[in-house]
Amino acid sequence: MHVLKYTGVFILSYLIGSAATAVWAGRIFHKTDVRKHGSGNAGATNVIRVLGWKTGIPVLLIDIFKGYLAASLPVLFKLAGPGTAQLINLQILTGLLAVCGHIFPVYAGFRGGKGVAAIFGVLLAIHPLLTLSCIGVFLLVFLATGYVSLGSLSAGVAFPVFLFLFFDTPSVIFKVFSVVIAIMLIITHRKNISRLLKGEESKLLRKNTGTGKN
Prior knowledge:
- Helix content is 71%, strand content 0%.
- The chain is mainly α.
- The chain folds into two domains: 1-126, no CATH class; 127-205, no CATH class.
- The protein starts with a helix and ends in a 16-residue tail after the last helix.
- Mean pLDDT is 90; it is low at 207-214.
């Protein structure tokens, strides 16, 4: 029964992450597949760009909640003692399964988003204060530049830096995980980095310069 309980939680985590929020919202409310427009990514940023803020913000919040819920399952099902490294490690595992579900959703042909919002939800469940600090970095960079991708990259790199310098955790795996997150964000955003270097990346926020150009 113990093995079945763990297995059930792991499968549930993946299925939660697989909820194809962006795809479903586009099809239900706009009769379109968001993956065929904009960046082709089934994520909240592309939904905002293609379908607007009214659709994109709920998609973003649900994607964050998916990661948060999956990472909370070990706590809800009491798979380990509170505050222990074992519990945190299990939260990382269930969170990663949800992120995998978001990137490769079984409900949408295994073509999903990049997992940034889901990762944020996972980290928020495991280490709220550290995560909120990184969100502060994201907002500062995003509001200053208008680039979601640059804000995400900056927050991702800040995460392990802040963890090692200002915070702590009983889990060594979480420390390794923080570094892996930063690396994975760089890998999944390599096209964005290329566009940023070429000056071709699209801004989600545009400033009026008074000259008619952005």
